[in-house]
Fold each of these.
Amino acid sequence: QVQLVESGGGLVQAGGSLRLSCAASGRTFSSYAMGWFRQAPGKEREFVAAVSGSGGNTYNADSVKGRSTTSRDNAKNKVYLQLNSLKPEDTAVYYCAATPYDSFSFWWDPGRYDYWGQGTQVTVSS
């Protein structure tokens, strides 16, 4: 069992930055790849980024490529999402999730994730 708790969301002006954190419980954290998804009102949940269990591989969606960095600290059981040059269309609830699939071929698919956090709201004002 893995429990996930996101933090770091908030209100930010367009062009600003945010660093989201996700704290995980459990001693098997490094055996899971970690993904970030977001969901805006009236829209489907969208893949944002993911990082492999070791932290050595990352993958970012085209919508945030060049503006996002995801990383993890397995010693602290934490994963991070740094978002820069934020746009109003980045406004959404951001979720972290854990998947046993350690390949970017699967990371885009929310159905591959076993555990989800409760989400943190990110609002970008224009």
Amino acid sequence: QVHLVETGGGTVQPGGSLRISCAASGRTFSAYRVGWFRQCPGKEREFVAVISRFGETQYYTDSVKGRFTISRDNAKNTVYLQMNSLKPEDTAVYFCVADVTIAAAWETSAASDLNYWGKGTLVTVSS
């Protein structure tokens, strides 16, 4: 079991930056790939980014490449998502997710295939 808690959401103006965090407790954190999904009102959850067990590899959905950066600190059991050049369409609830599925498979995996989810943190991009 892995328990995930997201923090750092809030409201930011278009073009601004925000960093959200995911703190994990439970079994060995480094055993899991960890990523972020987001859900906009009225839409399904979509993949945003994932990082490999020791941080050597990251994958991003096309719409956030070059703007978002995922990182992890296994000593602190924490994963971060640095979001820059934010756009109104980035407004969503962001969920932290952990699973043993290899990172390369996350973008094509169904959300329901991934085991451990946080409750989410709301990011609003608005002027």
Amino acid sequence: QVQLVETGGGLVQPRGSLRLTCSASGSTSGYHGMAWFRQGPGQEREFVAAIRWSGGSAGNTYYADSVKGRASISRDRAKGTIYLKMNNLKLEDTGVYYCAAGRPITSSLATVRGYTSWGQGTQVTVSP
């Protein structure tokens, strides 16, 4: 099974920017989608963004309403890597950001159950 490793988290000021990286070790050819989720303190894990990894809709991107216009997910298939760039960060963006990979169908793209492989997460703290 693929191992996913997230990097790039840290402390960021409000209205700042960051870029997270998720690197997959092993073959990703069996995956249909990769995504970012986050989990704030005392909250459930929530969808942030996803990108189709393979198939006819490869490269299509999807975003949670809370980050639409501020986030950009991209991929480098040759490197088995996805990125999440976020701008204009808000306090409520604080949380542990997780990378996920799987074979989600359209209806499960934004759900935890749509993914079978998860990284350990990277902490993002937005604070003055």
Amino acid sequence: QVQLVESGGGLVQAGGSLRLSCAASGRTFNNYALGWFRQAPGKERGFVAAIKWGGIRTYYADSVQGRFTISRDNAKNTWYLQMNSLKPEDTAVYYCAADSRRYYSGTYFSNDDMAFWGKGTLVTVSS
């Protein structure tokens, strides 16, 4: 049984930082892109960041570019989202996800492309 478990969420003041982790069990994802999505109150879940299976190429939503950094540790079957310069509009439930497409070479990552999801961790940024 595949499980993705997020951790690291919490309450932080604007301008602060948090580091989210996603630990996977039940299988490895060395050949798949991994990502982070978020859902703010009253909004649909949307793309935040993704990292390709090689661990080099990363992609970000415009709203977080330059502030968030995604990384992965295949040996630990874990990936991370370092969030700096947080803003109140970053408040959301953050979900980690694993892509369904092996060795995906494109640059588009949507909810429907993800095969596995964590249950989410709440990030609240106060002003």
